Amino acid sequence: MLDLWNVLLSGSAITAAAGAVAELTLDPQLKYWVLLPISAVMILTGILRQQDSTLIAPGVKGQPRVKLTEAQYMMKAQILLGNGSNINDESFNQRKEYLAKTLASGKYVARPKTENGKEAANPFNDPGTADAMMSMAKGNMASFIPQTIIMWWVNHFFAGFVLMKLPFPLTLRFKEMLQSGVMTADLDVRWVSAISWYFISVLGLNPVFNLLTSENTDNQLSMMQTQTPQGSEMMSQPAQVESQMKSLANDITIAQHECCFDNVETRVLNMYK
């Protein structure tokens, strides 16, 4: 009877030990020899990648004169419709007559020409499109190659390292994401491996790069300015632009003018009565 009781006690002790969560004690040197090197390499690589993207980005190309003239005449019509009340009737009527006649005639529509003097049939023949595609390919390569090298470096030298424990609880669904490379079923979810720290750094260091390199926003704006005219040239065909001009000419023709300076003295006196 006593032997049976001892067996039951030993079995319960084994079950309690098996159900307990494994607790680790990390070497403090891991922060200096694993965590900080990975973080420093990721930050420096991100800064160098942004500088490389600045160097390989294509320069801002000037627009043809006919395209600028086309855009400016359409802008003049929109400004006249929006701010026409700031000028007197004579000035408004002069601008109205001139812009309505000019836009309706389609005189300043930018029509792309080929060597034979005919309109270009395929907008993708524009060399600017090829330059934009080449620039995009260079940017993808400049981002893909360093990440591949760093991932190989982390996986080769720091595979199996556990670096830190997160101070907040998580569900088991985060185990695969935070403990990549550590095949331990009973390890707490809050422990983070070296490879998982690399992936977290890849996804979460963009705000740090934006703080360290203030030129990031300017580079994105310059790339958008470089690519937007090319896309607009392909999407806005001369027939579409001509129809937009005729629509603006119709709006100007039927626009009713009311000057803000009419009876201004009476209105001011009524305000201070």
From TrEMBL:
Highest taxon, organism lineage: Eukaryota
Annotated localization: Endoplasmic reticulum membrane; Membrane
One GO cellular component term noted in the UniProt record for this chain: EMC complex
Transmembrane segments: 32-48, 144-164, 195-213
A GO biological process held by the record: protein folding in endoplasmic reticulum
Keywords (A to Z) from UniProt: Membrane, Transmembrane, Transmembrane helix
Record has Glycoprotein as a keyword: no
Recorded topology in the membrane: Multi-pass membrane protein
Location, primary (coarse class): endoplasmic reticulum
Coiled-coil residue windows: none
Family: Belongs to the EMC3 family.
Role this protein plays: The EMC seems to be required for efficient folding of proteins in the endoplasmic reticulum (ER).
Protein name as annotated: ER membrane protein complex subunit 3
Organism (species): Maudiozyma exigua
Gene behind the chain: EMC3
